[in-house]
Amino acid sequence: MAQRGLQGHAKQFRRLNRVVKRQRTILGIVMREVQRKLDAPGFAATHANTSAKALGDLRMWLERAERVRTQQRHDKNKLYALHAPEVECIGKGKAKKPYEFGVKAAVVISHQTGLMVGARSFAGNPYDGHILSAVLEQATNLLQDVPGQIKVVVADLGFRGVDADNPGKQIIHRGKFNSLNPQQKSWLRRRQAVEPAIGHLKSDHRMDRCWLKGALGDALHTISCAAGYNLRWLLRAIAKLGIAPAFLRLLQMALLQAMVMRSAQTGRSRAQLAV
């Protein structure tokens, strides 16, 4: 695969096609050999101790390998990773990284404080404008105990044309710059603060790579990274305000109270068992 990438970068497409053809030939030989052994008459008797789950997993890997072997360059719904079929090829128009592989994630950051009040992953590489309502719904649920509602959304150009899908929300982006008042233009300039926040989310909180499996793992990883970002923000605010000693005392009292309550519950359960 490394050889294939180097030749593609050098635009030696004739040699590249030969390498790809050879790789597909080798993969087909291995797959047919494995399939012949699975279909052999004595395979079931010699592998009686093998669980049905292991055989099912082996057939699943064979199906994915066949999918990789037969897919072409311009096919839709291609398989990019054998261990993670939900991975998509995402093109964001970046000069350094024209294409990225993974799932799309969106975050919602408050205007004044910079806290992340929403973080959600989306499988299938949907259009940016189609995920806005779902992200705002999550942020609204998380902020249900906070007075006020989300009325103004400042987004980039990927979220244009979705005003009708989000009634009751004023969506501001750069495409409406000529019709904005000075306050709204200042909000639009403030939106640039989300870019370094996303950068810190990737570099400091490991959002650039997910080690959890499946779509559920992607969702948990996205929320965990955003929660870690908010915890670091809270610790910085505590240190900046100079209330670290008082905060530590309150934390010690809360931990002590939790330990006392746990020991009391353990004592009651032991007493019930003795009776």
Question: Outline of this structure?
Answer:
The protein is mainly alpha-helical and 275 residues long. The chain has helices spanning 2-9, 13-39, 43-46, 52-70, 132-142, 182-190, 194-203, 214-241, 244-274, and strands at 88-91, 99-102, 104-109, 116-122, 152-154, 170-172.
Walk me through the structure.
With 275 residues, the chain is mostly helical. 11% of the residues are buried. The chain has nine helices and six strands. The model has no long low-confidence stretch (mean pLDDT 85). It has three domains: 2-70, no CATH class; 90-234, no CATH class; 243-275. The strands form three sheets. The protein has a two-stranded antiparallel sheet with strand order 1-2. α1 (2-9) packs antiparallel against α2 (13-39) and α2 (13-39) packs antiparallel against α4.
- What's the number of structural domains? 3
* Secondary-structure class: mainly alpha
Radius of gyration: 27 Å
Apparent shape: flat
Amount of helix: 40-55%
Main sheet properties: 2 strands, antiparallel
Give the strand order, joined by hyphens, for the main sheet: 1-2
Number of strands: 6
- Give the SSE string: HHHHEEEEHEEHHHH
The CA-CA distance between the termini, in Å, is: 68 Å
Unreliable segments of 5+ consecutive residues: none
β-sheet strand percentage: 5-15%
Q: What is the helix tally?
A: 9
- In round numbers, the mean pLDDT is 85
Write the layout of secondary structure elements.
Blueprint: H1 2-9, H2 13-39, H3 43-46, H4 52-70, E1 88-91, E2 99-102, E3 104-109, E4 116-122, H5 132-142, E5 152-154, E6 170-172, H6 182-190, H7 194-203, H8 214-241, H9 244-274
Helix pairs in contact: 1-2, 2-4
